[in-house]
């Protein structure tokens, strides 16, 4: 019976990791896997017991869902005018409880739906009825207060609902359940105090940065952190502590992030970028930019392992803590074409 089960599990793993040319299995040790008491359907659909990370296709903003089997964590909530996309994605993944909502920094393309998730109004519910099914247990941010109505609205929602709230700083560790940990690498308490004390705020460079680890698997979450933060991370961490299997490209693939030195230290085998199509007014920036892409390739990252929601749709990582696979919704080879276009634009 066990043998049959193992065969089924291996088949499911093969199907999951092998449907697309980009959905490659990264083998670290021996081949996958110890048999768990899952049914075939569960193994194929949800990889139960494993870690699942989905960079959601929400347009120009950021929203990354982490499901550990014990907890569901959402990192950022995209923009207000991208709410329909976010809620659709959460509904597709049958998310009802968000155990931890992490807001990297208070720009609109990251906290756009925080308030509506925590304490939706009647209007918000009538626009997106699925919001009624979702509850948020705990909220985390960088502890730097902002003056925007969006920031104030989610702080008010936390108060109204009595939601647990905590500010994250370097050295904190969040337990995501099932041996999945999130080590906070940024911001520093000195920075938080200085900005709250009146120093001019630079929200991108106050982003919560954290390294998620699940046994041997790791992913770096960067929010919109730019070169300044990357330099600080390099100065304050050992290279081996920055090393990750997967990097969330800082600041939507902007040239303001992803320096050569930083990419060399993280040395990821996959890079995931979140940004929207050009025709959407949000990506007037032309993300992703040429320089980060060139830096990724120069570091030896396989072109097929650079994925972007703009072309690849929602990108899903699954890991059993030993191996991992990355599965884009759409298998589109865009990197080479996009680099050529960007190089041509540069010459104009
Ligand atoms: Zn952003």
Using brief descriptors, characterize the structure shown:
348 residues, alpha/beta, Metallo-beta-lactamase, Chain A, seven-stranded mixed beta sheet, 34% helix, binds zinc ion
Shape: globular
Q: Give average pLDDT, whole number.
A: 89
Number of DSSP strands?
16
Helix run count: 14
Task: Give the strand line-up of the largest sheet.
Answer: 1-16-15-2-3-4-5-6-7
Structural class: alpha/beta
- What fraction of residues sit in β-strands? 15-25%
Could you tell me the CATH topology label.
Metallo-beta-lactamase, Chain A
CATH superfamily: Ribonuclease Z/Hydroxyacylglutathione hydrolase-like
Helix content: 25-40%
Number of domains: 1
Order of helices and strands: HEHEEEHEHHHEHEEEHEEHHEHEHEHEEH
Distance between the termini: 66 Å
* Bound ligand species: zinc ion
Unreliable stretches = 1-45
Q: CATH top level?
A: Alpha Beta
Radius of gyration: 20 Å
List the helices and strands and how they pair.
Layout: H1 2-18, E1 25-26, H2 40-46, E2 51-55, E3 64-67, E4 72-75, H3 83-92, E5 97-102, H4 108-111, H5 114-118, H6 122-127, E6 135-141, H7 149-161, E7 164-167, E8 173-175, E9 180-186, H8 189-196, E10 209-214, E11 217-221, H9 227-236, H10 239-242, E12 246-248, H11 260-266, E13 270-273, H12 290-298, E14 306-308, H13 309-312, E15 315-319, E16 324-328, H14 335-347
Parallel strand pairs: 4-5, 5-6, 6-7, 11-12, 12-13, 13-14
Antiparallel strand pairs: 1-16, 2-3, 2-15, 3-4, 8-9, 9-10, 10-11, 15-16
Bound molecules: zinc ion.
């Amino acid at each position: 019976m066990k043998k049959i089960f193992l065969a089924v599990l291996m088949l499911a793993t093969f199907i999951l990791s092998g449907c697309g040319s980009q959905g490659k299995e990264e083998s670290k040790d021996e081949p996958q896997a110890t048999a768990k008491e899952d049914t075939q359907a569960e193994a194929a659909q949800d990889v139960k017991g494993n870690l699942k990370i989905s960079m959601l296709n929400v347009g120009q903003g950021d929203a990354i869902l982490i499901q550990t089997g014990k907890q569901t964590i959402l990192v950022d909530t995209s923009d207000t005018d991208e709410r329909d996309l976010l809620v659709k994605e959460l509904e597709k993944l049958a998310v009802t409880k968000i155990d931890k909502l992490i807001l990297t920094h208070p720009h609109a393309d990251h906290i756009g739906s925080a308030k509506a998730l925590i304490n939706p109004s009647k209007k918000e519910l009538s626009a997106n009825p699925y919001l009624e099914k979702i509850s948020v247990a705990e909220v985390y941010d960088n502890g730097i207060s902002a003056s925007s109505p969006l920031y104030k609205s989610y702080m008010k929602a936390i108060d109204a609902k009595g939601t647990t709230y905590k500010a994250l700083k370097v050295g904190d560790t969040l337990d995501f359940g099932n041996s999945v940990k999130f080590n906070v690498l940024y911001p520093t308490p000195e920075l938080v105090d200085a900005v709250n004390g009146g120093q001019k705020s630079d929200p991108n460079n106050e982003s919560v940065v954290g390294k998620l680890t699940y046994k041997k698997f790791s992913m770096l979450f960067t929010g919109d952190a730019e070169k300044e933060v990357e330099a600080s991370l390099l100065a304050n961490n050992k290279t081996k502590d920055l090393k990750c299997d997967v990097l969330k490209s800082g600041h939507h693939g902007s040239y303001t992030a992803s320096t050569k030195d930083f990419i060399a230290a993280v040395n990821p085998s996959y890079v995931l970028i979140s940004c929207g199509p050009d025709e959407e007014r949000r990506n007037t920036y032309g993300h992703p930019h040429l320089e980060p892409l060139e830096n990724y390739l120069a570091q030896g990252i396989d072109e097929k392992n650079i994925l972007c929601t703009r072309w690849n749709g929602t990108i899903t990582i699954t890991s059993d803590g030993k191996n991992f696979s990355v599965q884009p919704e759409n298998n589109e080879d865009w990197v080479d074409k996009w680099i050529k276009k960007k190089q041509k634009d540069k010459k104009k």
